[in-house]
Design a protein that fits this description.
The complex is a heterodimer of chains A (about 150) and B (about 375). Chain A is about 30% helix and about 15% strand. Chain A has about 150 residues and is α+β, with helices and mostly antiparallel strands. Chain A is globular, with a radius of gyration of 15 Å. Classes of the chains: A alpha+beta (about 150), B alpha+beta (about 375).
């Protein structure tokens, strides 16, 4: 089926299998490989994207459901060469190691800061609880979020 | 260790203090420790940082008031070491090689097989090379570790990348500098621009400039493969980790509430990356101590999905407070020793000791799931009745 997606502010028409996962359409048809696949079953959050203003696991979204939707992926977060404050903080404070969780973690952190501009430590932990990281032990991710809103 | 301490009537702390290894003493493989080891100091500092003594007293008092529906608390520690690099003759057999070459733009390119997997290899190698040459960080390039182009510097394992391969990076780039100085194109005193110019001139004159460095064991490091005795590792990192836990008497769930990780790792090359390695390792070790239960069925892992193999989320990990002591190691680059595996060793024993402190029961198996805690504790009560 032919669907239209408004991806990172750009309208794209794609010919898709209706039950294809949004994740696969993003990565394989639109070549937006910033979105990662971790578990493929909605547990790890690596495939997080923003769908009509809400963060979702794109591995759980059949693409037929999102015809006409606004989708923001990690590629749409920076303004040209100007990284988002959260992205810059992850770089500056060791928030990323292997990088597989990073796109989803960054989008979840941005979503958290949109909802709660100055989250407490508990709010950061809960806000990111749907995103798993195996490398960092989370400490530098929390620090990156704090540094991002302090800026 | 805590069980032995208990059996001989000493506190966990005193038992460790009487048995710590010191410089000049030998290990189980007859290795003479030739570096300064200050486990006593590490233990004192770690217990201070974690407020161990005051908490031990307070928890003992408060746990007595428990009514069977409350949370008991406990604090425990582990003292340990981890050798870096391959064991025994491993590094001698590997004969790792690192090369450094000058580029026409006057940059230095490192050729090594060590792979960047997020732990910071590229940053550390660039840092080692730029410090050794006195050049800007940006003047160092790291080649992709394509084995068609880079020499065999061994695998990216065994806490060896910074200490063993990094040392080869250091000597390879120093060889580059020596060649330039020897050719008369570079003076002993130079700046970034002089170095760039000298590289360009050397390449114009001789075609290319590349030096290599091959692993040699530090002096005094010997290993007997037949008797399996000798210097098991060139150097050890030393550490004391302290875990504070809460134990829910209703759900039998143990949670780590605070974690202090103090270690001596030679010189810390990059504080952010080093802390990142420790925090990540401690979180994985908390995972395999309290969360991660591999279920085997017919020789296969039955729960090989993230839905049923549970790893810690951001909501599960306590504050991991990382501290370093520095004692530069003469044969590591810039004084560094290996740290990659170290944090995996200390968390489980520290947590189990803390659980013993909270519950009075010594558990000696991981993963320690609520089910095991319940079985262990109810069995204890039955015997008690």
């Amino acid at each position: 089926m032919l669907i239209t997606l408004n991806i990172n502010g750009e309208s794209r028409m794609v010919d898709v299998f209706p039950m294809a996962r949004l994740l696969d359409v993003l990565r394989e048809q639109l070549h937006l490989t910033g979105t990662k696949e971790g578990c493929g079953e909605g547990e790890c959050g690596a495939c997080t994207v923003v769908l009509d203003g809400q963060i979702v696991n794109s591995c759980l979204v059949p693409v037929a459901q999102v015809n006409g939707s606004d989708i923001k992926t990690i590629e749409g977060l920076a303004h040209q060469d100007q990284l988002h404050a959260v992205q810059q903080a992850f770089i500056d404070h060791g928030g990323a190691q292997c990088g597989i969780c990073t796109p989803g973690m960054v989008l979840a952190a941005v979503d958290l800061l949109n909802r709660i501009p100055q989250p407490s430590e508990a709010e950061i932990r809960n806000g990111l609880a749907g995103n798993l990281c195996r490398c960092t032990g989370y400490m530098k991710i929390f620090e990156s979020v704090v540094r991002a809103y302090q800026k | 260790m805590d069980r032995v301490a208990h059996a001989v009537g000493l506190t966990p702390e005193e038992f460790r203090r009487r048995n710590f290894i010191h410089e000049g003493e030998t290990t189980a493989t007859s290795q003479i420790i030739r570096e300064r080891v200050e486990m006593d100091h590490l233990l004192t500092r770690a217990l201070q940082l974690s407020d161990y003594h005051a908490k031990r007293e307070r928890f003992a008092r408060e746990n007595q008031k428990s009514n069977g529906f409350s949370k008991k608390r406990g604090i425990g520690f582990a003292t340990f070491m981890h050798g870096a690099g391959f064991t025994g003759s491993g590094e001698v057999y590997l004969q790792s090689v690192v090369s450094a070459e000058a580029t026409a733009e006057g940059k230095v390119r490192i050729l090594a097989a060590s792979t960047e997997i997020g732990q910071g290899t590229n940053t550390i190698f660039s840092q080692i090379a730029s410090e050794a040459l006195g050049l800007d960080f940006e003047s160092i390039e790291i080649a992709q570790p394509d084995t068609g182009h880079v020499p065999n510097s061994g695998p990216t394992v065994a806490s060896r990348t910074s200490m063993v391969v990094g040392k080869l990076v250091e000597s390879a780039v120093l060889g580059l500098k020596q060649t330039l100085v020897g050719s008369g194109l570079l003076r002993q005193e130079y700046n970034d621009a002089d170095f760039k110019k000298a590289c360009a001139e050397y390449i114009a004159k001789f075609g290319s400039l590349k030096t290599s460095s091959t692993y040699q064991p530090p002096p005094n490091v010997h290993w007997d493969d037949e008797k399996y005795q000798g210097d098991a590792y060139g150097a050890y990192a030393w550490a004391v980790y302290v875990a504070e836990v809460s134990f829910d008497e209703l759900t039998y769930e143990a949670r780590v509430e605070d974690f202090v990780a103090l270690q001596e790792v030679g010189r810390v090359l990059n504080p952010v990356l080093a802390a990142g390695q420790i925090e990540g390792g401690v979180a994985q070790a908390i995972g395999f101590t309290l969360f991660e239960n591999v279920v085997w069925k017919d020789g296969r892992m039955a729960n090989n999905q993230m839905t049923n193999y549970i790893i810690p989320t951001p909501a599960d990990i306590p504050p991991i407070r990382v501290f370093f002591e520095e004692n530069p190691y003469a044969y590591g680059p810039g004084g560094a020793k290996g740290i990659g595996e170290l944090p995996m060793d200390g968390a489980a024993p520290a947590i189990l000791n803390a659980i013993e402190n909270a519950t009075g029961i010594n558990f000696n198996r991981i993963p320690l799931m609520p089910e095991e805690l319940m079985t262990g504790l109810t069995r204890f009560f039955r015997i008690d009745m």
